Give the backbone structure.
Amino acid sequence: MRRFAGVVILGLALIFPGGAGPSAEPAPAPVVDGSVRPGGGTATRGTEGQSANSTTTAATIVQRHAITDRHCQECHGVTGYAVPTGKHGETPLRSLFVDGGKLKESVHGRLTCLDCHSDINQLPHKRDGLARVDCLSCHQKLHREPEALVREMSQGRAMVGLIPSVDPTPIRANQVTREYAASLHGRLRGDGSRRENAACQECHGAHDIFPVTSTASRTHRLASPRMCGHCHAKPYEQYRMSVHGAALLTPWKGQSAVCSDCHPSHRIESSKLPAGWREITESCGDCHRQALESYLSTYHGQLAWLGDKKAAKCSDCHNSHATHRVDDPADRAHPDRRLATCRSCHKEATPGFALFQPHANTRDFKRYPWMWLAGKGMALLVLCVLGFFYLHSYLWFRRARRERVHGHEPATPMPLDSGDRTHYRRFSWPWRVNHWLLALSVMTLTLTGMTARYADSVWAQWIAGWIGDPVVLARIHRVAAVIFLLAVGGHAVAALHNVLVRRRGTFHWFGPDSLLPRLQDWHDMKAQFRWFLGRGAPPNLDQWTYWEKFDYWAVYWGALVVGLSGLILWFSELFARFLPGWVFNLANLLHGVEAFLAVTTLFVVHFFNNHFRPGKFPLDIVMFTGSWSLEELQHERPAAYRRLLANGELQKRLVPPPSRRAWILAHVAGFLLISIGLLLLMLVLLGFLKQGLV
């Protein structure tokens, strides 16, 4: 009865503090022996748990230093204690009851009420205007080392002459707090209320916070869906009927996904933003690892990872909260519904289009035989090509360096003096323009294409963000592809015109001026390897070497494989009218692996053969100026030099050396292209080390 009277008196005191009307401030009153009951009786504090009562007024005030948890429980410990949410008692009530027993058992049981409610300075306290409990400030200060230890360590550092500054090691709660503050839940609402979208206590509770491993915790795995459903009612209802939600009722089948498995509790981000859907998709991969890896290797996954809002994510095909088994007719990926699902993005999709395998991989021969065969074949091709030419470059470097050190240079006679015409024209201006088009287009294709291929790399996401939009990135890639194909095709047309029209009847298809492979190339290669191993003299090379012919025809091979597969991916809806969907899986695989082979060959082998080997390092500018000095010609191509000198052709091809300006510009352009190429190579290798080849 006395406790009930105290509650009534405290309520009146909160409404009319000090008895002077609604706006009057409570008048100060003396503290009797250190503490006062908010209900009107004073309590003297002797030994812990003992009190003596005396009568005082309802306005008697307890100062902050005298307030204990027992005082708070005088009111908040009364079952049913609540206040109206409106201006009168007819409005809904807000409970202010705090179960003291649960509070003591919670993770905050060692704290006092005032540790959290830090702005309460006296009792009775004001009803309105109290600050909300600031969980973040406290959790951000938590560390493994106590403050006393940090001070001691700082003093020790100062004594030995080090900077007396020690940063305490943050604990998990500290990190989680920072993550929450940056998340969607931690941001302020847009209604001007200065409240977070979801405050800490809305998920964890206020006075009954237990470890997540405890079944009493609101954030326990089995309880978390219901807790999330308080705000997200529709997704919760869908989840309850899904394969994930139903599995919670049958725990003997194994654990199922709950909300926090897909939406990390303290890193929540909008699923409409790249950071949000990346986080959700990666969470799907925690259980479906192989499906995630295969998804990221498809055009869907690559564009989605780079930030394309329209690219298909897991939830677009499987429905995020109403997920069912694929063999369930209710699932959007069921064979009977798959075409309709595809048409939600690809309006003109045909039945063959739905045969595309969104999770095809190169490891499952039984389900994806063509992918398995293509993957193993391309991997073998990459291994053989890179293995042969990397070994070729290494042996050449070792032997050429030794030859240069000991001064072993092949000697051949110089021609008669020709005035200032001391250079041999090796490449005409159309060749050089074509080389520029190929170089710039290939580097652009590498930048944009490998950004998509290794979309889960940090550098790829940075480049995509810098460009601004994955769609723009794709357009740049396609423009560069058109330039590349026009350069390759234009050169082929010009070469055929030269052979079939201009030099008709005089051109020898397998002669020294032809780029077609011939038997002499085999002999030159054997002689070159004997020279590498110190078992013979270097070969007498003619106009075109075997490694130059490899470079030349590799461009056509690459244009065929990369170009054809790229066109299939570009115009997918057109090709889907007469090609089965699995062809797109195959095209994507061939496109990426062949591009990787081109990059690791071009920016390593081609650069070494023409720029980095001893005698050429750091740069050969012949492709920029178009000419070699006669000394270079006789050293690099002794057979061609003697042949041209003997038949009089050499005199016809002599030109003046490049001007000083042309020499400087050639070096600037050459170093710029080589630097870009090496940077691209480094990025591709970083992506390869993280993701692999196939």
